[in-house]
């Protein structure tokens, strides 16, 4: 076998060395061969005749060997915009030597080129949860000329602050987890991300004399309950060091991280009580909204210069300790109203944006400011958003719309940004509780096509409240963040299945996903369809308007019932193939839990309709019996995969570094609350199922006796069960017998098949 060398720049950005190491590793995985790494100080153009095969990384300004080839006229057709994410992959022959050049406008573009070469020419495919590595005897080094550039300048993803399960919660991840994640971003040619997972030790570093490091195992004064229980699992000292290592590695790969700035106080970035007691910042009181009403959650009065300076001291500290002042982000006065007079409220909110923008304009005049759309979508009228846009500087500000997939009339198409003001198209995809497959792709396709055609649209970003809940959505968003071809659900299904699955089952999975899409479409994030089954005790239970409220849903339940059963049946046919294929195994569970959860919700709707009609107790009891049986089957399904186990997630936390021995209670709080209840085995088995039993028993009693539902008694029984849940360890909860996956899915098929939806 002829020896191959790879030449990368000896000096300059570290991304080139990382790219070289990635190329060498993939070469070995694909061909079994080794490649020797050399720097451009070791190899000159005149010495290429000594080698038969050479790979060169970097452009002529970075790699001296590339520079020699450029000056000698060897690279006449290699053209790209310097400073951009464009790249070129080209084969050529120099002095009888086969040369493969991977070059681009900036260091990360070379990393893109490495991964794209193995994807395009060596049949490799990339996913967040694993790679499909192609095989060949030798790397192809002839007849290659590929130039690619992104449609959008910003292509990114946000990681958020909720906790419960390792797969979905970035705060749980170790440095090694993050390195894999960063390379997934590079493989998908993303360039931007944001760690919105809390402040870590920012107050301690910005105000060391006022705020001290808390004990890891103690009770944080700011921690309350539910998702607001922010008690630590790892120490703040460790988390600060971890954040530094994550961002240093990301920057070594030439990725951008968005810096939070301005009025950052929120539920996951509360003000430490120690800061309130010592600094005593004046607070914006008089909120008309109940959210974050404790002093730790109130915005510091932005009208006072000292408060403005304190907020920006946090940002400056993050830049100094961790980040870079490349791109900034603000939430403004998010999720709050300060006056019943909308004009007065708007003036305060706009004033806040004015102050933040002015500070950045003076301090970082060349850095863009992304204005988060969450508050705009939720608390502004369309006319108020248009006024905000009219007051912002298009040379500085970008509307970061991560609600582009809303079904609400208040969306980017009405904000006066299309063709007029810089903006970013964002897919929100899911609330914290929604980790299943979901989304109205017909609508998303239509709106994304608008973004593609609008030169003022600067990016496509995925900003869910959880990570990797929906693998298909992640692939869809990453693909169209780069490509400019017309968005197509059918095309994306075909690409997803051909890339992700073995050829033997690829066509079968295309048919399955095509059949699945209408069931996926039942739930979009802003209709809260699927929240019902996870929090039975909070339902507006069995109201008289149920027939009118749920009639349209139940019509779809009948229309999709046969396909739901066929999809689950198809899944049982690929279980054997999944035993050696973790990606397929994960998708089986994602598809199955999506289908089953849809019919849990539809079953609850049918129960409420049957109760409201009060004309057939037998049909009511059948509906409740079927729904309860499906609850049991659903819990059993979740028990079979570690993605849905809090116990597994806790063990993974403890394997990284010393962990708060009391954190198990906090983890339960973070998972078991009105907002975050999700696809979690321990919650399904020990809360959802018992609560459904209590509910149905009380409904049966009330219906049989012709009396009102005793909600107080029902609530008391559910509270007793919750107390038992918190008294039982996660380890004990997981010590249960388990059936084979096929038997569990077959059981769910049988139950769904016997469910009746008359509406």
- For the record, the CATH architecture of the largest domain stands as Alpha-Beta Barrel
Mean pLDDT: 96
If helices are DSSP runs of H or I spanning 4 or more residues, what is the number of helices?
Answer: 25
Cα-to-Cα separation, first versus last residue:
71 Å
What proportion strand? 5-15%
Q: Tally the structural domains.
A: 3
Parts with pLDDT < 50 across at least 5 consecutive residues: none
- Report the strand count: 16
Q: Over the alpha carbons, how many angstroms does the gyration radius reach? A: 28 Å
SSE class? alpha/beta
What is the 3D shape?
Answer: globular
Percentage of residues assigned to helices:
40-55%
The CATH topology of the largest domain corresponds to: TIM Barrel
Please outline the major beta sheet. Answer: 8 strands, parallel, barrel
CATH homologous superfamily annotation of the largest domain: Glycosidases
Biggest β-sheet: strands ordered side by side in the sheet: 9-10-11-12-13-14-15-16
Name of the top-level CATH class of the largest domain: Alpha Beta
């Amino acid at each position: 076998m002829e020896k191959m060398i790879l030449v990368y720049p000896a000096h300059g950005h570290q991304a080139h060395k990382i790219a070289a190491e990635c190329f060498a590793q993939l070469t070995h995985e694909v061909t079994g061969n080794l490649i020797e790494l050399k720097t451009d100080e070791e190899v000159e153009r005149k010495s290429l005749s000594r080698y038969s095969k050479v790979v060169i990384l970097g452009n002529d300004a970075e790699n001296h060997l590339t520079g020699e080839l450029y000056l000698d006229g060897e690279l006449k057709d290699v053209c790209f915009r310097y400073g951009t994410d464009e790249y070129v992959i080209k084969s050529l022959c120099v002095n009888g030597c086969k040369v493969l050049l991977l070059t681009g406008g900036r260091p990360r573009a070379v990393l893109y080129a490495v991964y794209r070469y193995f994807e395009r020419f060596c049949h490799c495919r990339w996913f967040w949860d694993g790679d499909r590595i192609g095989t060949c005897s030798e790397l192809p080094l002839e007849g290659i000329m590929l130039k690619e550039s992104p449609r959008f300048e910003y292509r990114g993803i946000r990681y958020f602050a909720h906790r419960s399960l390792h797969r979905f919660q970035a705060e749980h991840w170790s440095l090694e987890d993050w390195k894999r994640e960063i390379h997934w971003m590079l493989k998908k040619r993303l360039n931007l991300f944001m760690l919105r997972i809390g402040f870590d030790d920012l107050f301690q570093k910005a105000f060391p004399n006022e705020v001290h490091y808390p004990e890891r195992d103690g009770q944080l004064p700011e921690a309350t309950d539910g998702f607001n229980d922010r008690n630590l699992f790892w120490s703040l000292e460790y988390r600060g060091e971890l954040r530094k290592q994550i961002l240093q590695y990301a920057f070594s790969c030439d990725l951008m991280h968005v810096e939070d700035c301005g009025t950052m106080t929120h539920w996951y970035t509360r003000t430490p009580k120690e800061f309130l007691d010592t600094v005593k910042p004046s607070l914006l009181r008089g909120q008309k909204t109940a959210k974050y009403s404790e002093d730790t959650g109130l915005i510091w009065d932005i009208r006072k210069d000292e408060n403005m300076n304190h907020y920006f001291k946090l940002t400056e500290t993050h830049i100094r300790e961790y980040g870079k002042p490349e791109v900034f982000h603000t939430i403004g006065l998010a999720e709050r109203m300060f006056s019943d007079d909308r004009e007065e409220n708007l003036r305060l909110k706009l004033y806040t944006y004015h102050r933040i923008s002015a500070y950045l304009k003076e301090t970082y005049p060349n850095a863009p400011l992304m204005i988060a759309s969450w508050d705009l979508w939720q608390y502004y009228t369309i006319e108020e958003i248009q006024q905000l846009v009219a007051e912002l500087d298009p040379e500085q500000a970008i509307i970061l719309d991560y609600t582009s997939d809303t079904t609400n009339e208040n969306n980017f198409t009405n904000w006066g940004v299309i063709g007029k003001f810089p903006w970013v198209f964002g897919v929100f995809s899911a609330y914290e509780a929604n980790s299943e497959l979901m989304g109205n792709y017909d609508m998303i396709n239509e709106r994304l096509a608008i973004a593609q055609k609008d030169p003022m649209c600067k990016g496509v970003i995925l900003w869910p409240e959880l990570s990797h809940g929906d693998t298909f959505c992640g692939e869809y968003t990453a693909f169209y963040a780069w490509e400019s071809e017309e968005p197509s659900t059918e095309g994306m299904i075909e690409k997803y299945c051909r890339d992700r699955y073995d050829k033997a089952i690829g066509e079968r999975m295309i048919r399955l996903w095509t059949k699945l899409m209408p069931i996926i479409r039942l739930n979009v994030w802003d209709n809260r369809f699927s929240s019902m089954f996870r929090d039975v005790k909070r339902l507006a239970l069995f109201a008289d308007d149920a027939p009118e409220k749920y009639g349209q849903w139940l019509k779809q339940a009948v229309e999709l019932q046969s396909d739901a059963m066929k999809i689950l049946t198809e899944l049982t046919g690929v279980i054997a193939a999944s035993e050696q294929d973790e990606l397929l195994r994960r998708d089986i569970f994602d598809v199955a839990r999506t289908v089953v959860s849809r019919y849990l919700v539809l079953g609850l709707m049918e129960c409420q309709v049957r109760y409201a009609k009060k004309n057939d107790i037998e049909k009511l009891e059948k509906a409740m019996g079927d729904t309860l049986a499906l609850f049991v089957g659903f819990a059993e399904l979740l028990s079979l995969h570690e993605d849905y186990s809090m116990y597994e997630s806790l063990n993974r936390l403890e394997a990284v570094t010393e962990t708060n021995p009391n954190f198990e209670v906090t983890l339960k709080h973070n998972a078991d609350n009105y907002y975050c209840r999700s696809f979690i085995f321990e919650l399904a088995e020990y809360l959802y199922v018992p609560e459904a039993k209590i509910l149905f028993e009380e409904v049966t009693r009330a219906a049989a006796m012709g009396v009102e539902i005793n909600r107080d008694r029902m609530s008391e029984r559910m509270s007793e069960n919750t107390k038992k849940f918190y008294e039982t360890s996660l380890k004990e909860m997981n010590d249960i017998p388990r059936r084979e996956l096929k038997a569990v899915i077959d059981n769910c098929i049988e139950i769904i098949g016997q469910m009746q939806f008359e509406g």
